[in-house]
Q: What sequence folds into this?
């Protein structure tokens, strides 16, 4: 009985080892086949998804007559004339003026958001005070609030204060932590930092200001970098705010300048439009190439929108 | 003897102790409000204050130049009989109801494709994510318009496959599909969130299901979907609220008109026209408040229904 079982088991073993070698080879082949299918389908998808952006970039080097209806990506008549035209700007205002305005707005946003949101987030994450939970709920509520309900009174007040045609209405919210997304992101990040650090500092007699400045801020660097990148890109792409508050062309940010440019150039001058569209996206694309890891991780962990 | 002598001293020391604790608590609260002050100030000045003001304005006639005049519910009754307003709802709801699910289905499908053990995932993930960063920009709206215009490249491809062409930008029945395609193109952001959610699902669940003989579709329905439901909930809520607020792309593609034939007259566009071109600030405020109530009610229904279909693993915690 016992010998039989050992015999069968050894013969089983022999058979199975022979089988498993074959099995291993065939699963290896199958796995390689599946990897091939995966890469081919993914690459086809990437090509489709990136096509509009690449088409825009390549079209900006084509003469205008060659753009509409031309599926091909390679310019037959390579030209940089479109860019020269785009740089000239509109109505005597140079492209670089718009560019500078956009930079001022975006850098202002980054400074405002990183300062105000990190300070406010510290209160939510690390200080115990009456009403904290209510305020936190209100803050989350503003995440879901349609912006429409605040813009009209805001506009009326800023208009009365003579602040239309300044950057103040566009930046003040950034310095007052009005972008709840970033407060939320930083609160979540701070909550994950070990509490022993600030407790030890408190025993050593450090106050909240010291703890915030010398313990929290340095540790929060990843959250601050992610916030800065998104703050920059969102401000850079913002269309509605500048449309409301900037009326003088020499104060225009790039998106509204681009819209004016499209309105004023003849509809057939697609080349210059494409060139200016490309130039308006260059900083965003640079940020993407350099910081893609931060961006994608930021979205993955915080659910930030692009 | 020692006991009675000790009792009062502990008494005073606890009194001093509680006083000190009270003082510390008060200074702690003070610090809390001091640190919160940027947000608190912003909340009062830029959110709560304006919300109350626009609620008041919704019942007035106000054109920015003469003082507001109380007209009761007139703005609301006018809104309900305003054909443009009805059109704005129709356009916006079509976009939200069609665009959001299609976008999320694309996001989920690609996330599942990428959730394999193959290499190069990072590259694909970043490539698919890129449109989400630039999709809402004026630049892309211009490109989209150029692609879908009469005799544009989309026309060429259509004709190649034998479909009737003629351009999408000027055809009221095709502007909506064109804008939905633009939002679906930005599936990358929810895809990244789905991918993070898929990674959290323990592989033992799938192994156990395989042992029990479950097929791929059964695994998807019984494991993937329930385990992913918190992420689906989050994406759906966020994308929907986002979709209600579409502005720049519709504004650019319709040349700032909401046309052709009001086919791109989104809620935000119509509010902008009324409030900031005709300066009917009371009317626009009434529109804004109706939107807040509708979005709020929708979110409430969402959270309420989530108890039935959103499963949180480790619920005991």
A:
């Amino acid at each position: 009985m016992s010998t039989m079982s050992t015999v069968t088991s050894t013969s089983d073993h022999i058979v199975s080892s022979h089988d498993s070698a074959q099995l291993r080879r065939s699963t290896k082949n199958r796995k390689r086949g599946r990897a091939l299918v995966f890469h081919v389908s993914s690459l086809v998808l990437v090509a489709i998804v990136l096509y509009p952006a690449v088409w825009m970039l390549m079209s900006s080097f084509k003469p205008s007559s060659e753009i509409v209806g031309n599926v091909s990506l390679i310019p037959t008549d390579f030209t940089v004339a479109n860019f020269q035209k785009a740089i000239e700007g509109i109505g005597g205002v140079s492209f670089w003026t718009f560019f500078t305005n956009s930079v001022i707005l975006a850098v202002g946003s980054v400074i405002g958001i990183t300062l105000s949101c990190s300070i406010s987030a510290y209160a939510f994450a690390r200080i115990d005070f009456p009403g904290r939970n209510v305020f936190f709920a209100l803050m989350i509520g503003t995440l879901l609030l349609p912006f429409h309900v605040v813009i009209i009174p805001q506009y009326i007040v800023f208009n009365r204060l003579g602040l239309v045609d300044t950057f103040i209405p566009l930046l003040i919210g950034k310095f007052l932590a009005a972008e709840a997304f970033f407060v939320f992101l930083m609160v979540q990040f701070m909550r994950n930092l070990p509490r022993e650090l600030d407790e030890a500092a408190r025993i050593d007699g450090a106050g909240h200001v010291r703890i915030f400045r010398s313990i929290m801020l340095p540790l929060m660097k990843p959250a601050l970098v992610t916030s800065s990148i998104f703050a920059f890109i969102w401000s850079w792409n913002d269309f509605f705010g500048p449309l409301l508050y900037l009326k003088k062309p020499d104060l225009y940010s790039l998106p509204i300048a681009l819209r004016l440019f499209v309105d004023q150039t003849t509809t057939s001058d697609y080349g210059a439009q494409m060139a200016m569209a490309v130039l308006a996206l260059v900083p965003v694309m640079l940020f993407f190439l350099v910081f893609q890891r931060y961006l994608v991780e930021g979205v993955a962990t915080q659910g930030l929108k692009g | 003897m020692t006991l009675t002598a000790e009792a009062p001293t502990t008494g005073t020391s606890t009194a001093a102790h509680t006083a000190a604790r009270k003082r510390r608590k008060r200074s702690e609260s003070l610090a809390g409000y001091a640190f919160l002050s940027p947000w608190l100030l912003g909340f009062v000045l830029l959110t709560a204050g304006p919300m109350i003001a626009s609620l008041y304005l919704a019942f007035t006639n106000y054109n920015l130049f003469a003082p507001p005049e109380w007209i009761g519910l007139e703005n609301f009754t006018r809104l309900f009989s305003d054909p443009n307003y009805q059109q704005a709802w129709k356009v916006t709801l079509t976009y939200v109801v069609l665009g959001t699910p299609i976008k999320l289905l694309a996001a989920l499908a690609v996330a599942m494709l990428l959730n394999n053990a193959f290499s190069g995932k990072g590259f694909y993930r970043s490539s698919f994510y890129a449109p989400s960063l630039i999709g809402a920009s004026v630049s892309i709206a211009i490109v989209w318009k150029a692609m879908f215009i009469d005799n544009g490249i989309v026309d060429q491809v259509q004709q190649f496959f034998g479909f009737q062409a003629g351009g999408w930008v000027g055809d009221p029945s095709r502007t909506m599909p064109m804008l939905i395609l633009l939002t679906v193109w930005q599936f990358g952001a929810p895809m990244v969130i789905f991918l993070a959610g898929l990674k959290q699902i323990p592989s033992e669940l799938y192994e156990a299901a395989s042992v029990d003989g479950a097929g791929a579709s059964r695994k998807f329905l019984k494991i993937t979907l329930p385990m992913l439901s918190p992420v689906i909930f989050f994406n759906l809520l966020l994308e929907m609220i986002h979709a209600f607020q579409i502005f720049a792309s519709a504004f650019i593609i319709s040349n700032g008109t909401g046309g052709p034939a009001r086919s791109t007259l989104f809620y935000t566009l119509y509010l902008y026209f009324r409030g900031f071109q005709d300066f009917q600030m009371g009317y626009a405020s009434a529109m804004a408040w109706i939107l807040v109530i509708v979005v709020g009610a929708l979110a409430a229904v969402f959270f309420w229904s989530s108890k039935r279909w959103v499963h949180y693993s480790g619920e005991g915690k």
